[in-house]
Amino acid sequence: MQREPDGGTRARTAAHYAALADHYDTNWTHSESFLSWMADEIVSVLGLGPADRLADVGSGTGLFARRIAASGQVALPVVCIDPSAAMLAQIPVGPELLPVEASAERLAGLDGALVPEPAGGPFDAILVKEAIHHVAPADRRRVLAGLADRLTHEGRLLVVMLPTRIDYPLFDAALSLFTALQPDPEAIARGMRDAGLEVSLTYHQTELRIPRERYLAMVADRYMSLLSEFDDPTLAAGVDEIVAAHPEDVYAFPDRFAFVLGTRTEQRPRFSSPSAPHSPPRSPSCSAPASAGSSPARCVPTSKPASGGATTSPGDAGRSERCEETG
Predict the structure, then answer these.
(1) Whole-angstrom distance, CA of residue 327 vs CA of residue 324
(2) Cα four-point dihedral sign 179, 180, 183, 186
């Protein structure tokens, strides 16, 4: 959500997650195979290995961090950074995950003092999954630059986000508001390039199958922070609109994500001020800044299941697709 001048949106977002915290996982565990699929995609795109130190920024309850930690493809503990104490309180106690109450802005050096080491970095990999939209548009480039400064040499920053249009079975007002507020993955890629990172943008898609009554309950519970923008009567009318448009017993729809990956290839002083974007990276063969534009994408359907050996059933993710930049 975009931040209002009075901080109203940030306050509403905080209230949204505080209210959802104790049953947040129930809303999102509609498909264990989806959770496994997403965790596997993150591990693969980040190229994680057992020695890599990972921070999950906007981790919430650690829903994906738990699965990544259990993969054996990352050093423990995974640092779970989130501004919501209520969400962090849901993280299981143990050596696998380290909860840290802080915002992405604070980790990047925008909101007061930096998060001290080791919780504040440096990291071999930083994950920001479906959280970049909570950063005010005016701050996003500086946050990306600040996060890039928390990377080791050859460290990776991965922003996982929805595209600007989604094919979810939502009511029209919610879909329109989503498109109006959701940042463009191309803009995030440009911000990473300006932070001095080498960037790739890929799209990964799977299919969700959720029983109607469960999905309607998720919408009524405002499982997406977007839905906190609607009051109770408007939301109830929206649920009625969904029922009228989708009478089927199981809602099957594509879930498509942009994976924006930035890799730090230059040695820079760590924890430098993010007050201004870094200069664009320079090509080793010339002195002119590299273009901040991006190449077109191509989509490559695959038959890879959403999780190894999982049986497809209502609530399971299915066919996946990768879309890669072409030069």
Answers:
(1) 10
(2) positive
Q: Are strands 151-161 and 250-264 parallel, antiparallel or unpaired?
A: antiparallel
Q: Model confidence over 261-314: pLDDT tens digits?
A: 999 997 655 444 444 444 333 332 232 233 333 333 333 333 333 433 333 333
Handedness of CA 77, 64, 203, 192 (dihedral sign): negative
Q: What domains appear along the chain, each with residue ranges and CATH number?
A: 8-266+297-325 (3.40.50.150)
Whole-number Cα distances in Å, 273 to 125, 147, 287, 303, 317 = 20, 11, 25, 45, 42
Other Cβ atoms closer than 10 A to 148 = 27
Q: For the stretch 11-42, what's the b/e string if a residue is b when 16 or more beta carbons lie within 10 angstroms of its beta carbon?
A: eebbebbeebbeebbebbebbebbbbbbbbbb
Rg (CA), the chain: 19
Residue with tokens 């924006």: 260
* Residue among 302, 284, 259, 242 nearest 45 (CA): 259
CB atoms within 10 A of CB 268: 14
- Quote the tokens at residue 294: 């991006």
For the chain, how long is the longest CA-to-CA vector?
60
Tell whether pTM > 0.90: no
pLDDT tens for each residue of 114-162: 788 778 789 999 999 999 999 999 999 999 999 999 999 999 999 999 9
Cis ω on the peptide bond leading into residue 99 (within 30° of 0)? no
Q: Is the dihedral of CA 41, 42, 43, 47 positive or negative?
A: positive
Strands 197-211 and 320-325: antiparallel
